[in-house]
Amino acid sequence: MAKAAFDASDTPTLWTHEPHSHLEFQPGDEVGDIKANATPGFKGSKSDAPDLQDERNERFAELQEMLYARSRSGDTRKILLVLQGMDTAGKGGIVKHVVGAGNPQGIRYASFGKPTDEEQAHHYLWRIRNALPPAGHLGVFDRSHYEDVLIVRVRDLVPPEVWGERYDEINAFEKELVDDGTTIVKVAMFVSLDEQKERLAKRLKRPDKYWKYNPGDIDERELWPKYQQAYQAVLDKTSTEYAPWHVIPCDRKWYSRLAVTELLIEALEGLDLSWPPADFDIKAEKKRLDSV
Ligand code: AMP
Ligand code: MG
User: Fold this and answer.
1) What is the pLDDT of residues 109-120, one digit of tens each?
2) Residue 126: nearest ligand to its CA?
3) What is the mean pLDDT of residues 194-217?
4) Cβ–Cβ < 8 Å for 136, 72
5) Which one of 38, 117, 139, 201 has the largest count of C-beta atoms within 10 Å of its C-beta?
6) Interacting residues of 31 by C-beta distance below 8 A, sequence separation 6+
7) How many domains does the chain have?
8) Ligand 1: does its nearest atom lie under 6 Å from the Cβ of 113?
9) Which atom of ligand 1 is nearest to the CA of 91?
10) Does 287 reside within a domain?
11) Is residue 63 part of a domain?
């Protein structure tokens, strides 16, 4: 039997509260205090994760398909998942193991690296606007406009008076998206310096991981304290009531994946979705089908 779309028993019982209440950035929270190996709000253990992940992936997939289905009959709402984090934090794993459970027809994935010459010739939000999710889609930003106040700030790629203006501009941009029917789920993924080292070492050891390794990752690693400051500024200045940041400890991949899954489910449930009704006469169509 198909699972009912909405069922209070779906509430994830292995969480002490709604996950977002543990994860939402609060004014005064310090990046330096984040424990990347913590599992805030989760009562279960690693051994509970695989089954729970499967179960919640299914719920996510059902809702995500519903969102897409509704867009076929004019619902223009969309979700935008913004993933930010240092290399190895696990952005790719979220894309593969969480978002990957959804229906690709309704997913718009975009990753943002060093701007191309063409991108560089435009305002920094140009490439971002071009990658926004259409109606009914889940947009996934693997890195985002926040790079323009992270690496750009850390590496002095533009003068401080230029990047300094961007926080307000980003807030205004996100407000525009929200007013246009986008639910923004912002996820800041924090891995510890030690865990990053292990993950980079693995990338250097395993042929199936070489593709993820970039010598430049070590250069960014050397700038860790400056990145911590830049992340702090992002969280302080761009956590808004309409687009709050969530801080995800990422040393335990099983935890970060469960946590982001819950944030997505929560965002989708907040849209109060249902399957679109038939826009044809069901009885008449059954009859027609019987006759051919
Ligand atoms: P990856 O996501 O591992 O493929 O790496 C992409 C790289 O591009 C990261 O080092 C980002 O910090 C960098 N990057 C992304 N956006 C920008 C930007 N606007 N300016 C400069 N570098 C960027
Ligand atoms: Mg990388």
Assistant:
1) 999 999 999 999
2) 1
3) 96
4) yes
5) 139
6) 190, 228, 229, 231, 232, 235
7) 1
8) yes
9) 2
10) no
11) yes
Of the listed ligands, the closest to the CA of 203 is 2
* CATH number of the domain enclosing 91: 3.40.50.300
Average confidence (pLDDT) over 216-232: 97
**87 CA to centre of ligand 2 in angstroms:** 5
CA gyration radius, the chain: 20
| Share above pLDDT 70 across residues of the chain, in percent, rounded to a whole number | 96
Whether 15 maps to a domain, the answer reads no
Question: Could you report the per-residue pLDDT of 107-165, keeping only the tens digit for each?
Answer: 999 999 999 999 999 999 999 999 999 999 999 999 999 999 999 999 999 999 999 99
For residue 88, the 8-state DSSP code is T
In a domain, 277, yes or no: no
- For 187, the domain range is 20-271
Q: Could you give the CA distance from residue 194 to residue 204 in angstroms, rounded to a whole number?
A: 16
Which pTM does this prediction carry?
Answer: 0.95
Cα–ligand 2 centroid distance for 208 (angstroms): 15
Instruction: Look up tokens 């990422």; give the residue.
Output: 250
**Which residue owns the Cα nearest ligand 1 atom 20?**
114
Q: What are phi and psi of 45, to 5 degrees?
A: -130, 180
Q: How far apart are CA 37 and CA 283, in angstroms?
A: 56
Centroid of ligand 1 to alpha carbon of 65 (angstroms): 31
**Closest atom of ligand 1 relative to the 119 alpha carbon:** 19
